[in-house]
Amino acid sequence: MPTIFISYRRRGESAGYAGRLAAELRAHFGPDQLFRDIEKIEPGRDFVEVITSAVASCNALIAVIGEDWLTATDTAGRRRLDDPQDFLHLEVTTALNRNIRVIPVLVGEATMPRADDLPDALKPLARRQAHELSDTRWDFDMQQLIATLEKAGIRRRRSLEAPPPLLTRGWFKWALGIGGALAVAAAAWFLRPIILGSFEASPPEIPTGSAAMLRWRTADADEVELDGMGVGPADSAEVHPARTTIYHLTARGQDRQADRKLTVRVAAAPPDAAPRIISFEADTSRVSPGTVVRLHWHTANAEAVTLGGRPVAAASSERVTPTTTTSYQLIATGAAGRADTATVRVEVLAVGPPRIDELQASPAAVTPGQSARLCYALVNVSRARLDPGVGPLTSLGRDCLPVTPAQTTAYTLTARGAGGQDVARTITVEVTAIPPPGITYFFPTPEAVAPGNQAALCYGVTAADSAHIAPDVGAVKPVDKECVPVTPSSTTTYTLTAFGSGGATRTERATVDVVQVSAAAPVTTVRRPPTSHSTGSLTIPQTWTADLDEGVVGGGADADIWFEAVTPTERYVTPGRGAVIAKVGSQSVGRDGCVAARLSATKISIADLPVGTYVCVRTNGRRYAQFKVVARVGPSPGVLQIGYTTWEGAVAIPSK
Predict the structure, then answer these.
(1) What dihedral do alpha carbons 414, 415, 420, 422 form, nearest 10°?
(2) At what angle do helices 180-191 and 169-178 cross, to 10 degrees?
(3) Order of strands, edge to edge, in the sheet holding 355-362?
(4) Nearest CA-CA partner of 404 in 69, 71, 9, 74
(5) How far apart are CA 558 and CA 572, in angstroms?
(6) What is the mean predicted confidence (pLDDT) over 474-490?
(7) Which tens digits make up the pLDDT trace of 389-413?
(8) Cα–Cα distance list, 444 to 486, 517, 534, 612 (Å)
């Protein structure tokens, strides 16, 4: 079973480091002692079962921690590390619960997470000593990690066996059997050797603490590896071996392989050699308060090394977080008390107190399952978090992130400055219930037609995802104002259904009468100039007017009706200048009914116009109209919702 388990965020920025780390460990310990999910899980196997079994049987788990390890989120904006089913969470907690050695390996610019930033099951990870892998000191850092694993009882692999012979006797018989120059040329191509032109170290022997440069050149190779790590066909690499080390260069191509070994000898320092600080440096020399700075050092011939008076390793690195300008002193002490000293100064720039300049939600109210964006702007902040559900923030300037609250939620943004000062702001995202679908009006115009003639079904719906009229019509637009044509062959009742979210529905019915035309009493026909009719719905605010000729709210001097308010409780529908009106009941009377109605300039009390009442109007444009009270929204100030039709053309007036 594998003895080293590599845990990493498969879609995070640490995945590349994990691949490079795996190549180095594979070259040193052998592939059978390493578990990395993309290489070890066969198709069809249970992912969770395989990972749990592999973690439980390993000697050490390496947790590769990149900058987004702590803050990576799923598609819903939730932190992945808080999910017990998250694979990384599962891997690390399994190892911690079984008391398996867990080695946090920090890559990129990652820092060790604090216990209060981790879910409860992962809090013990914060007490594990971390190991850093830096790009600039990769070889040295890898050697230190390998030494740690060897101390944990993981053995180095045996030498590789010689590769199997490339060509068999049967292959040669086949090649000779094809005859001719083609077979000879093909054999020459397949048998051409991989050329390992050079592989050398400069210098081949170094004193303790020094570096050597490895250089190589190859030809006709598809891939080249140095100790299991991919490199170029002609390249170089600086190495810092702590002891005499054998480096392996392998070139492969066309099922052939060439290998070469190179030894870099590390000479032991003479007993009286003076201690030396080969290098001591900081990543940056000027920072703002609270910024993490990495110190690196490398010494030779030292019996003891201290940093700021504390014992440290002879060659290592350490993260510091200065709050004021600080000088760090490294002392390497050797035989006979001789010492070498070096100092690094990190200047901390003065900054103001932490500020949260902005915290906004867009939109501020959502329906269940809908997302909002929380946007913030931070100044002079070294650390920040957003709760609940988000956790630590990686961007400490201006940014936005999505949230999907299940219920009305107050989000608190807490920011800390370099001096330990905290500021906080809270914003609430309201989760509102999805309104049910509504039908504001549904009526035919005209209400009666002769066989073969057309009518229009006018309707308005609200909060609907879709709408449907049956029979014969089908799906219609779920809008607040629309008419569709129908040509019924007989009297037909139509049903309008509005469909909302979650399966909610609302229905209304309207009937078109189909009547036979028979001989009628003689009539006098009055012809008026042809005009286009208007039909639809209007929402008239209290104290506003409406023009039924044009179908608009307002209309000025041409207005036909006025939603008058004498007091908050005494309100009327009042005819406009030149218009007359009449209440005709709860059934539509059509154009001819309005012509015959007793119209007057008398206003009608809103209290006498319940929902469903029809009112006839002769407009000041000398046309006849009819409206239905669809809704009275109030109390004062309120609105009056009506569905109306204004007719055009000749009006038939019975003869006397």
Answers:
(1) -50
(2) 140
(3) 355-362, 372-379, 398-403
(4) 74
(5) 19
(6) 89
(7) 888 887 888 888 899 998 999 999 9
(8) 9, 19, 13, 14
Return the axis-axis angle of helices 15-29 and 138-151, rounded to nearest 10°: 60
- Concatenating the DSSP letter of every residue in 530-593 gives ----EEEEEEEETT-EEETTTTEE--GGG--EEEEESSSS-EEEEE-TT-EEEEEESS--HHHH
Dist CA 307 CA 293 (whole Å): 15
pLDDT, one tens digit per residue, over 71-87 is 888 777 788 888 888 88
Domains of the chain as residue ranges with CATH: 4-151 (3.40.50.10140), 188-267 (2.60.40.10), 276-348 (2.60.40.10), 355-431 (2.60.40.2470), 438-514 (2.60.40.10), 523-654 (no CATH)
Element (H, E) at 24: helix 15-29
Q: What gap in Å lies between CA 101 and CA 551, rounded to an integer?
A: 80
3-state secondary structure of 307: strand
Return contacts of 526-533, CB within 8 angstroms, 24+ apart. 526/650, 526/651, 526/653, 527/650, 528/622, 528/649, 528/650, 528/651, 530/648, 530/649, 531/621, 531/623, 531/648, 532/648, 533/623, 533/645, 533/646, 533/647, 533/648
Which two three-digit tokens encode residue 7? 């845990």
pLDDT of res. 418 = 67
The pLDDT of 427-449, averaged and rounded, is: 84
Nearest to 229 by CA among 213, 209, 244, 250: 250
SS3 assignment for 608-639 = HCCCCCEEEEECCCCCEEEEEEEEEECCCCCE
Distance in angstroms (rounded) separating the CA atoms of residues 494 and 5: 69
Amino acid in the structure at residue 125: L
Looking at residue 49, its pLDDT comes to 78
Q: What pLDDT sits at residue 636?
A: 67
Q: Pull the structure tokens for residue 551.
A: 């179908």
Report CA 636 to chain centroid distance, whole Å.
46
Question: 345 CB contacts (<8 Å, ≥6 apart)?
Answer: 285, 325, 326, 327, 328
Alpha carbons 653 and 638: distance in angstroms, whole number = 38
- The structure tokens listed for 138 are 């990769």
Pick the range with the lowest mean pLDDT from 253-257, 419-423, 584-588, 647-651.
Answer: 647-651
Give the helix/strand (H/E) hosting 12: none
Model confidence over 504-532: pLDDT tens digits? Answer: 899 998 888 888 765 444 433 333 433 44
- Sequential DSSP letters for 467-522: EEEETTTEEE---SSEEEEE--SS-EEEEEEEE-GGG-EEEEEEEEEE--------
In whole angstroms, what is the distance from residue 36 CA to residue 22 CA? Answer: 8
φ, ψ at 232 (rounded to 5°)? -75, 165
Which residue matches tokens 């879609």?
A: 11
CB atoms near residue 241 (< 10 Å): 21
Q: What is the DSSP string of 59-91?
A: SEEEEEE-TTTTT-B-TTS-BGGG-TTSHHHHH
For the chain, the average pLDDT equals: 81
**42 CB contacts (<8 Å, ≥6 apart)?**
none
Closest by alpha carbon to 477, among 499, 505, 444? 499
What's the whole-model pTM score?
A: 0.32
Containing H/E element for 256?
A: strand 256-267
Which residues does residue 430 pair with via DSSP β-bridges, in sequence order? 365
Structure tokens at 325: 């300008």
